[in-house]
Amino acid sequence: MGVCAIFPEDLFFTVRLHYLAFVFSALAVITVLLYVRVTGAQIRTKALSGWLIAVDAGHGGHDKGAWFPQQGLVEKDVNLAVAKELGQVLHDVSAAVILTRHGDTFVDLSERARMANAADAQLFVSIHVNRFPADPSCCGAQVFYADSPASKQLGIMVQAQLIAIDPQNRRKALPGDYKVLRDTRMPAILVEIGFATNARDRTLIMNPRYRQDVAKAIRDGIIEFSQWSTAARIPKNAADR
User: Fold this and answer.
1) In 3D, which of 193, 208, 224, 220 has the Cα closest to residue 85?
2) Residues linked to residue 52 through DSSP beta bridges, in sequence order
3) Is residue 118 packed enough to be buried (19+ CB in 10 Å), middle (13-18) or exposed (0-12)?
4) Residue 74 phi, psi dihedral angles, 5° rounding
5) Whole-angstrom Cα distance, residue 217 to residue 90?
6) What pLDDT does 231 receive?
7) pLDDT reported for residue 33
8) Phi, psi at 56, each rounded to 5°
9) DSSP H helical segments within the chain, as ranges?
């Protein structure tokens, strides 16, 4: 009767081979994952390459906008802070950005639209804080869009991203009859980042982390819109209306 026995030294050699094979396989998987992660990050940093976006901080100067002095909330200041944050995160994905104001100055509504049109911006985003004293329970960020299919699509996509950062938000993107939306030629939206008349929203609005999240949500909605417009073969510099 024949017997095929594995001596201890043979067993050790076999286990060592299996261990080395496992290590090399694990290293190969890690290398692939790192490559995918780095490549994905590189692609994302170019997500809005070639796009020029006008970012408008609502109000300014003598025009304070909505305010709630008990918590130090002054809309013109909040708008500018969020607009600058949005400008930065858009720059991070290779977009070119123009701000309609850089400091606490008053800019006429017609001039804001003129600046965006003169620069041939592909998108216009205006930042505001909402208010509705008649019903302090009203809360949540909301997008209003210009009268065009592309503006509506942009508004819906940005609204979805705003809801993603605040699950309590039940608001929907709606058409808005605002001068800056009427007078701009490109897809345009006005984003109300919350209600100064709602206690929950005031706390959020005064939190720098929330402002950053809002800016990133708007950016992500714009990236999604850019992908949609590319698939729909809509030229970036085409007049919207």
Assistant:
1) 208
2) 96
3) exposed
4) -125, 115
5) 11
6) 83
7) 46
8) -115, 115
9) 8-45, 75-91, 109-118, 149-165, 179-183, 199-205, 208-231
Count the neighbouring beta carbons within 10 Å of the beta carbon of residue 132. Answer: 14
> Residue ranges per domain, the chain?
9-45, 47-231
Q: Which residues contact 92 (CB under 8 A, 6 or more apart)?
A: 45
Identify the three-state secondary structure at position 119: coil
pLDDT of residue 30: 54
Tokens coding 205: 């609005």
How far apart are the two ends of the chain, measured CA to CA in Å?
92
With tokens 């692609």, the residue in question is 43
In CATH terms, the fold of domain 47-231 is Aminopeptidase (3.40.630)
The rounded distance, in Å, linking the Cα atoms of 122 and 240 is 9
Written as one letter, the residue type at 178 is Y
The letter for the amino acid at 36 is V
Nearest of 97, 102, 150 to residue 119 by alpha carbon: 97
- Output the six-digit token pair for 61: 């100067």
d(C-alpha 34, C-alpha 149), whole Å: 40
Digit-by-digit pLDDT tens for the chain (241 residues) are: 443 444 455 545 554 555 555 555 656 555 544 444 444 444 468 999 999 999 999 999 999 999 998 899 999 999 999 999 999 999 999 999 999 999 999 999 999 999 999 999 999 999 999 999 999 999 999 999 999 999 999 999 999 999 999 999 999 999 999 999 999 999 999 999 999 999 999 999 999 999 999 999 999 999 999 999 988 777 666 667 6
Name residue 110's amino acid.
Answer: S
